[in-house]
Give the backbone structure.
Amino acid sequence: MSQKQAEITTFDQICTYDNIRLAYERARKRKTKKTYVIEFEQNLDQNIRELQKELITETYFPKPLKIFIIREPKTRKISKSEFRDRVIHHAICNIIEEKFDKAFIHDSYANRIGKGTLKAIKRFDEFKRKVSKNNTIDCYFLKADIKHYFETVNHNILIKILEDKIKDEKTIRLIKIILSNHKSEHEGKGMPLGNLTSQFFANVYLDKLDQYVKHELKIKYYIRYVDDFIILDHSIDILQEYKRKINHFLNEELKLELHPDKSKILPIERGANFLGFRIFNHHRLIRRKNLKKFQRKYSKIKTAHKKGLVSREKIIEKFEGWLTYINHADTYKYRRHLARNLNQDFPLECEIKLANIKKHENEIKRTDTLNFQYSPQKTLRLFNNKLTIKQIAEKRRIKESTVYEHLTKLIEYNQYSVWKVLQKEKIIKISRQIITENDSLKEIKQRINDNNLTYNEINLVLASIKARNKKKNILFHIKWYKNNYCRRKCFFDQKQMLACEAKFNQLISNNPQLNITRKEFLDLFNHHIKICTLSDKKKEEYVPWAEFKVRLALNKKTR
């Protein structure tokens, strides 16, 4: 394909019906209930074809931006485009993003697939360990911010950068139209906060800085997220020199400057404020202003709940993102405190909707059995009839390894127990050498160092660990929890057990299709719902079967 054909293809690809349809799908994500999306969908095919026609005939012009102010986390002016314009933004990015993204440096983490804030934080921890040589020497960081970045992006410089990879005049003309739709104090400058194209162009514009930092200054420990970037080093003098050179480059090449108050060099023990976290040598905290912001939101929702304006389910849904976010910092005590407050301020008070819990349990079992393959089921029936693995292989005319494979699948999908297949001593010996469920059989075998244990036997135990971590219906977890926790702790308090049984049924009736892992269930039960009336310490305590039998025997003697 000639260069001229490639240039034409870029714009033609943007204008295709399939690309605009894909752009619409992406623009509507998490906004399906919005009025403007519903209105656009009423004449979907016609609206897409109209946008396509406007692009092809070069008569497309975006509608004026709607401006509004947000106060959190800081005061900002957000510009909102019409939905049809957002579809066009996605259509452009669908085609041109790949051309630029593959040339971006690895440590640019904003608005890119497979990146994001948590990946940036993880990378920062990695750099921190390397620079400080596992916290054995002093480590410093330069945390910098570009002053009024989105307001000062120079359109001419941006277009020149885009033209390096996009030779198609029609595509460039379309981008200029979108850029000019934003009215700023200085003509030819600025991009609206909130547009997809602005997020993408922000990365394209600062890629010049990234390349300078990596290839000219040869800085190894550098991370950028939009207009925030951080550099680590063991020398303050080196960081000061980097700061001076970067500021000079920004002034000369991109007509930008570092924020004088927000660009500082500090020791890591003071804590680096980066992407909502305060990162120290050995731990990570949530920034105080983020905690205060959440507390204000919490108080507002608490008031609304008391007035009956919002349900408990909606509240948990709203706080779900926050609970996930704080989980990435050292916030164990705070999460426990928050869970207690949630249970006290928003108690679970719903009527039981599912009349027959047993019927629901049978339905789940029946579905699981139907979804499971016939051949392993046949092996299971023979194994239950007391046939050995060798006898099953002979009877079914299959290899013994195939019988082991069937049993492994049955165990992994909770259709059978490993304790019914292997001796207790073998299971304990193997399980002690399994670090994670992703360990290879060879690694586990080497750790065990026992020729009497086979790979097939190791695989059976590994399958039981995988089964424990698989997502299962909440009914399965409740049944397991009642057998292993409730009945052993409250066996002698039947009244309490009946009260808890009603609450468990209520939980099932409200979430009949909920599938979670055992770890998620325990976190939910211990920290987010109020069923057990025992103290937190006793609730999380595990009573072994042997200890329970001793208690049972003592109780019989005292009668």
